[in-house]
Design a protein that fits this description.
By secondary structure, this protein is of the alpha+beta class. It folds into two domains: about 1-30, no CATH class; about 30-80, no CATH class. About 45% of the residues lie in helices and about 15% in strands. The chain is built from three helices and two strands, in the order H-H-H-E-E. It has helices at about 15-25, 35-45, 55-65, and strands spanning about 65-70, 75-80. The protein has a two-stranded antiparallel sheet with strand order 1-2. Strand 1 and strand 2 form a beta hairpin. The longest helix is centred in the middle third of the chain and has 14 residues, at about 35-45. The radius of gyration is 15 Å and the shape is globular.
């Protein structure tokens, strides 16, 4: 059986802290959507894509490689194998 837990709320309310603690305690994967959004934004900046270029952004979303990996009790985010 699998399930997804989503915690939403305003910035600075402890969402990241709570999800990290829950993931560790329950042996779950903590998916940091904020980090994923930042990766997409960085990839668009690196490729000179404007927020108005929807087709190019869609192409980024279809081809981007984001990895969330836990190393030494720390979650690391890798963009396009870097």
């Amino acid at each position: 059986m699998s399930f997804v837990v989503a915690i939403d709320g305003p910035a600075g309310t402890g969402k990241g802290t709570v999800t990290k603690l829950l993931a560790e305690k329950l042996g779950l994967v903590n998916i940091d959507t904020g980090a994923m959004y930042r990766c997409v934004t960085l990839e668009c900046i690196n490729k000179g894509i404007s927020v108005t270029e929807e087709d190019k952004i869609k192409d980024i979303l279809e081809n981007i490689d984001i990895k969330l990996i836990k190393e030494n009790d720390e979650q690391k985010v890798f963009l396009n194998r870097k």
